[in-house]
Structure to design on (189 residues):
C-alpha cells in the first residue's frame, strides 16, 4: 500500500522516530531514551535516508519532543479516537506552518516536501511527519496507524498490509504472543 509516493516514506520516518526516541516498552522490556539522542535520531532518519547527516545532541532532543507528540497521534488512533488524532495533527501543522515545496534530490524525480517555517531539522521533520499523518488520517486508511498489542510493548506501526489486520510492531512481538498462547494451551492440557 502506498499512501502518496514520498509521503509513505515520511510516515515510516514518523514511526521510526516515535519508536526510537520515546520511552516505554519494546518487545517485553523497558525501553529508555538513548543517552545520545543525536546518534539515535540520526540512526532513525537513516532507516529511510541512509546518507542523512549526523545530528547533534540538541537536534536529537528536539526530535525526541516531536516524536512524543507524534506518539500521541498513534495512540489516539489505536484507541479509536480519530478526532483527537486529527486535532493533534492539525495543531502540529498549524504550529510548524507546514509549507509545500517541490524538491528533487538523490536522483529522485520531483516530489512534494513539507518544511516548517523555522527551517530547523526538528521543525522540518515535524511539518513533514504531520503532513504525512494528515494524508493517512484524511484517507480511508486512517485506521492503519497503531500501537503494538503485545504485552509489554508500546511501539507504533503503520499497517501497509493488503488486508489491514496488523496488530504488532514486529514479527518478534507477534511470535512472543503466539508462543505464550501455545504454552498456555499446552499447560491447560
Amino acid at each position: 500500500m502506498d499512501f502518496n509516493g514520498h509521503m509513505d516514506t515520511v510516515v515510516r520516518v514518523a514511526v521510526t522516530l516515535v519508536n526510537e526516541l520515546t520511552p516505554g516498552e519494546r518487545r517485553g522490556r523497558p525501553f529508555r531514551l538513548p543517552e545520545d539522542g543525536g546518534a539515535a535520531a540520526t540512526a532513525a532518519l537513516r532507516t529511510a535516508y541512509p546518507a542523512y547527516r549526523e545530528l547533534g545532541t540538541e537536534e536529537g532532543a528536539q526530535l525526541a519532543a516531536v516524536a512524543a507528540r507524534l506518539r500521541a497521534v498513534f495512540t489516539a488512533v489505536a484507541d479509536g479516537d480519530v478526532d483527537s488524532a486529527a486535532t493533534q495533527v492539525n495543531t502540529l501543522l498549524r504550529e510548524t506552518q507546514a509549507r509545500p515545496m517541490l524538491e528533487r534530490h538523490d536522483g529522485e524525480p520531483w516530489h512534494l516536501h513539507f518544511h516548517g517555517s523555522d527551517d530547523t531539522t526538528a521543525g522540518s521533520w515535524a511539518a513533514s511527519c504531520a503532513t504525512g499523518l494528515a494524508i493517512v488520517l484524511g484517507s480511508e486508511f486512517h485506521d492503519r496507524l497503531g500501537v503494538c498489542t503485545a504485552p509489554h510493548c508500546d511501539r507504533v506501526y503503520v499497517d501497509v498490509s493488503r488486508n489491514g489486520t496488523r496488530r504488532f510492531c514486529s514479527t518478534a512481538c507477534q511470535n512472543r504472543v503466539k508462543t505464550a498462547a501455545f504454552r498456555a494451551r499446552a499447560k491447560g492440557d
In short: Residues 73 and 87 are 9 Å apart (CA to CA). The first strand starts at residue 24 and ends at 26.
